[in-house]
Design a protein that fits this description.
With about 600 residues, the protein is α+β, with helices and mostly antiparallel strands. The protein has three domains: about 1-130, Butyryl-Coa Dehydrogenase, subunit A, domain 1, CATH 1.10.540; about 135-250, Butyryl-CoA Dehydrogenase, subunit A, domain 2; about 250-585, Up-down Bundle (Butyryl-CoA Dehydrogenase, subunit A, domain 3), CATH 1.20.140.10. It is built from 17 helices and eleven strands.
Length: about 600
C-alpha cells in the first residue's frame, strides 16, 4: 500500500497511486451520501457542527483519518502528496468540514514528530480506531500567532522524593477547532524549561471548553475557547517526555501544516471557479454566452485559474520533497499558504461577481465559499505573518549563500526555457536574478526594518518561486514526463459549490483536468510568468522610490542592473495567450 524512504530505489513515502485514488473515490461517494449540497447548505445556514457526520467519516466503514496515521499505529501511512490531494478535494466539498478533519491531523502532529513510542501507540492508535476527535490548542487571546509569547503555564508537581510526577496547567486557549468536541487536545504550555506540548483528555478536572464561536464562515466547524484551571496532567502526557521541546516540535511541522492549509484554499477557490465557468457556458448575455466575452473571461476567470494552477504545481512539488524526506521546508510552506490563500480569496470574490445576482444567493453556494475561504488567509498564521517569515528567512538565505539560492533557480529556469521556450521561464530567470540584487540593496541600505518593503520582497519571492515550480511542471509535461509530483490531479470530482446550478459538469479548473494538458500547462506557465514579471518590476519600483531616499542616478543604475526593463517584454502576446486558455477552460472551438 505504501512506499517508504527505506526502499531500494528511494521511492517517496506515501500511498501508491491506486490507494490514493481509492481514498479520493471514497470522498466522491461521501459527496453523494453524507455531504450532499443540500446538507452542506443546511450546516452552514443553521451553523451546525455535524459531529455525528465527522465521527461517521472516522468510523470503521470509512476511516478517512487512517490516511495520515502511520501503518505501525494502525493507519494507511499516507504522505504529504496524499494528504494534499485529499484535503484539496474535501475542501472543494466544504471548507468547514475540511477544517474539522484537518484539526484532527493537526492535533496529531506533535505526537507524530515528538511523541515517544508509547505515546504514539496510545493516542495515534486511538485516532486510528476511529472513535477519537482531536484538537490542537496553541493560539491564545493575547499571543495570537506569536507562539513564543504564550501565557498558559504548566507548573511541575513533585512527589515525595522530589521527582516531577506531572504538571498543573492554567491558562486560556482561543480559536480552537474541534475544541468543544475533542476527545483529547495537544496543548502548548510554558514550563520552566520552555514551551512544551501536553495531551489533555476530555473530562479532565478543570478543563473547560467554552461556547462555540459564531463565525463569518466555515460554520460547519466548531471553534471554541478552552479554559484550564489547575488541570493536572501526569508525566506520561508530556509529549516526548522532556520539557522545553514544544517550539521545536511546532516548527517541525509548519512546512507541512501550512501546505495543507494551502491545499484547503486551492480546493475552495477551484470549486468557486468551477461554478463560474459552468454558469458562463450557459448564461446568454448581449447575443452570446458569457464564456465568449473576453472581458468576462480575462478579468474574472483566467487570472484566477492561472494562479491556482500555478500554486497547485508548487504545492505538489513541495509535497514530493517532503515525501522524499527533505527537512526545513518551513519557508516553502509559508509561500504556499500565503499565495494559495490570497489567490483563492480573490478567486472566490470574482466568482461571485461572475455569477452576478446568483453569486450573492445562498442556493448557488459561491457566496458560502467566499465566506469560508477567507479563513485560510488567517489561521495557521495570517498572511502578514507569512510575509514576515518569507522575507526574513529568504533575505538571510540569500546573504548566507551569496546569492546562490536564487541564482540556482535562475539556472533551472534557463534550462526550462531551452526545453520549452513558450512557457516564459526566461522572464522568471530575470526575476530571480533581480531578487538577488534587491535583497543585497535592501540589506546594504539598512531597509530590512522597513516592514512594508520587506512585505514587498516577500510578494516578489512568492511569485518567483511559485512561477519556477509551474514552469518546471510545464516543461516536464511537454517532455512527456507527466506530473512529477503525482498528487492533486483528481482534485475536482464535480462541483462543490452549488445546488441546482450547472456547475456539476466535472472539474473545469483542477490541475490536469481536461485536454490538452501540455498546452494548458504551458499557457498557465506563460501567463503566470507575465504576472510574476509585473509583480517583480512593480516591487523594484516600490522599493527604490518608496522611501524617497535614493537619487535618480542610483535608481537608474539599479534599474539597469536588475534588468527590469526587459520584463516589459513578458506582456507580449498575453491577450492571445489568455484567449487560448479561455478556449480550453470553456470548451470553445478556438483557433
Amino acid at each position: 500500500m505504501t512506499t517508504t524512504l527505506d526502499s531500494a530505489d528511494k521511492a517517496p513515502y506515501g500511498l501508491d497511486d491506486e490507494s490514493r485514488q481509492m481514498v479520493l473515490d471514497t470522498l466522491a461517494q461521501l459527496r453523494k451520501r453524507l455531504l450532499t449540497p443540500e446538507r452542506i447548505r443546511e450546516f452552514d445556514h443553521k451553523e451546525v457542527f455535524p459531529e455525528d457526520v465527522i465521527r461517521e467519516m472516522l468510523g470503521p466503514e470509512i476511516g478517512l483519518q487512517l490516511l495520515f496515521v502511520p501503518e505501525e499505529y494502525g493507519g494507511m501511512g499516507g504522505g504529504a502528496r496524499d494528504c494534499c490531494a485529499v484535503t484539496r478535494q474535501m475542501s472543494s466539498i466544504c471548507l468547514g468540514i475540511a477544517t474539522a478533519f484537518f484539526a484532527i491531523q493537526l492535533g496529531a502532529d506533535p505526537l507524530l514528530v515528538g511523541g515517544t513510542e508509547e505515546q504514539k501507540a496510545r493516542w495515534l492508535g486511538a485516532i486510528a480506531e476511529g472513535d477519537t476527535l482531536v484538537a490542537y490548542a496553541v493560539t491564545e487571546p493575547e499571543a495570537g500567532s506569536n507562539v513564543a509569547a504564550l501565557k498558559t503555564r504548566a507548573e511541575p508537581v513533585t512527589d515525595a522524593d522530589g521527582a516531577v510526577s506531572g504538571y498543573r496547567i492554567n491558562g486560556v486557549k482561543q480559536f480552537i477547532s474541534n475544541g468543544l468536541a475533542a476527545d483529547f487536545v495537544t496543548l502548548l504550555a510554558r514550563t520552566p524549561e520552555g514551551p512544551s506540548f501536553f495531551v489533555i483528555e476530555k473530562g479532565a478536572e478543570g478543563f473547560a471548553p467554552g461556547k462555540g464561536e459564531e463565525k463569518h464562515g466555515i460554520r460547519a466547524s466548531n471553534t471554541s475557547p478552552i479554559t484550564l484551571t489547575d488541570v493536572f496532567v501526569p508525566m506520561e502526557n508530556l509529549i516526548g517526555g522532556e520539557p522545553g521541546k514544544g517550539l521545536k516540535q511546532a516548527n517541525a511541522v509548519f512546512g507541512y501544516t501550512r501546505l495543507m492549509v494551502a491545499s484547503m484554499a486551492v480546493g475552495g477557490g477551484m470549486a468557486a471557479l468551477d461554478a463560474a465557468i459552468a454558469y458562463a457556458r450557459e448564461r446568454v448575455q448581449f447575443g452570446g454566452p458569457l464564456s465568449e466575452k473576453q472581458g468576462y473571461a480575462h478579468k474574472l476567470i483566467v487570472p484566477h485559474v492561472v494562479r491556482l494552477e500555478a500554486v497547485s504545481a508548487f504545492i505538489d512539488a513541495i509535497a514530493l520533497r517532503l515525501d522524499m524526506g527533505e527537512k526545513d521546508l518551513e519557508v516553502e510552506g509559508s509561500i504556499a499558504k500565503l499565495f494559495a490563500s490570497e489567490a483563492a480569496n480573490r478567486a472566490a470574490d470574482d466568482a461571485m461577481q461572475a455569477l452576478g445576482g446568483y453569486g450573492y444567493i445562498c442556493e448557488f453556494g459561491v457566496e458560502k465559499i467566499k465566506r469560508d475561504v477567507k479563513i485560510t488567509c488567517i489561521y495557521e498564521g495570517a498572511s502578514e505573518i507569512q510575509q514576515n517569515i518569507i522575507s526574513t528567512f529568504r533575505w538571510k538565505k540569500v546573504r548566507k549563500t551569496k546569492g546562490a539560492f536564487y541564482e540556482k533557480m535562475a539556472v533551472r529556469m534557463d534550462a526550462a526555457e531551452a526545453a520549452l521556450p513558450e512557457a516564459g521561464a526566461s522572464y522568471i530567470a530575470i526575476c530571480a536574478r533581480a531578487l538577488n540584487r534587491m535583497v543585497d540593496f535592501v540589506h546594504e541600505n539598512k531597509l530590512t526594518k522597513q516592514q512594508t518593503l520587506m512585505f514587498t520582497l516577500a510578494d516578489m519571492m512568492a511569485h518567483v518561486e511559485v512561477a519556477a515550480g509551474m514552469a518546471e511542471k510545464a516543461a516536464a509535461a511537454a517532455a512527456g514526463a507527466g506530473d512529477a509530483a503525482g498528487a492533486g490531479d483528481a482534485t475536482g470530482a464535480g462541483n462543490a459549490a452549488g445546488a441546482g446550478n450547472a456547475a456539476g459538469a466535472g472539474n473545469a479548473v483542477g490541475v490536469g483536468a481536461g485536454a490538452p494538458d501540455a498546452e494548458r500547462r504551458r499557457l498557465v506557465s506563460r501567463i503566470f510568468a507575465a504576472e510574476t514579471a509585473r509583480v517583480t518590476a512593480d516591487g523594484i519600483r516600490r522599493i527604490l522610490l518608496g522611501t524617497g531616499g535614493f537619487d535618480a542616478p542610483t535608481v537608474d543604475a539599479l534599474r539597469k542592473a536588475t534588468g527590469v526593463d526587459a520584463l516589459w517584454e513578458a506582456e507580449r502576446g498575453m491577450t492571445a495567450a489568455m484567449d487560448r486558455l479561455a478556449d480550453i477552460l470553456f470548451g470553445r472551438t478556438g483557433s
